[in-house]
Amino acid sequence: MVARVWSLMRFLIKGSVAGGAVYLVYDQELLGPSDKSQAALQKAGEVVPPAVYQFSQYVCQQTGLQIPQLPAPPKIYFPVRDSWNAGIMTVMSALSVAPSKAREYSKEGWEYVKARTK
Amino acid sequence: MSESELGRKWDRCLADAVVKIGTGFGLGIVFSLTFFKRRMWPLAFGSGMGLGMAYSNCQHDFQAPYLLHGKYVKEQEQ
């Protein structure tokens, strides 16, 4: 009797945890349209770092530990979009002139071989 | 489509993919721990579902200027 009640309780607890997770996802519209997901990610990016910082400060106050200040990471500016676009344009222009260039080089090569065999 | 609009669409797609894959993974963890005895397949299933949903959203987003959507309009009775 006790074992059955305990297994039922366990099932209810697991069901409520899983149901709560599903409801949270539904309420925050995380699996909905892309603009809602983007807004949720932006909100998380604004909320999480101050929360983590406050928690670390609280832990430091309670335990007396001092977390050392890390130096700021170096800012690297590499315009991926520009270099990617330039790369794509170079590749596409090379592909577009490839047949005519191949014809020209093969013609030159043929002329060269003809001249050598005369 | 202008390049800035294309860039915005790509940003939205990537953010959407991150959120959906993460959500699917998280739900997979919850269900794996609660009902499926810590097996790996709910995690893979959830992540895959999130990836598929993100891909579908991205596809609709990029094809949006070219797709024509019909709408049913109810006749208004006077």
From TrEMBL, chain A:
Native organism: Chlorocebus sabaeus
* GO CC annotation, single: MICOS complex
One of the GO BP terms on file: cristae formation
**Its topology with respect to the membrane?**
Single-pass membrane protein
Keyword Mitochondrion in record: yes
- InterPro entries the UniProt entry points to: Mic13 (IPR026769)
Q: Family, per the entry?
A: Belongs to the MICOS complex subunit Mic13 family.
Signal peptide as annotated in the record: 1-18
Share what the entry says about its subunit structure, partners included: Component of the mitochondrial contact site and cristae organizing system (MICOS) complex.
Source domain of life:
Eukaryota
Q: What is this protein called?
A: MICOS complex subunit MIC13
Instruction: Spell out the Pfam families in the cross-references.
Output: QIL1 (PF15884)
Subcellular location(s): the record lists: Mitochondrion inner membrane
UniProt keywords (A-Z) are: Membrane, Mitochondrion, Mitochondrion inner membrane, Signal, Transmembrane, Transmembrane helix
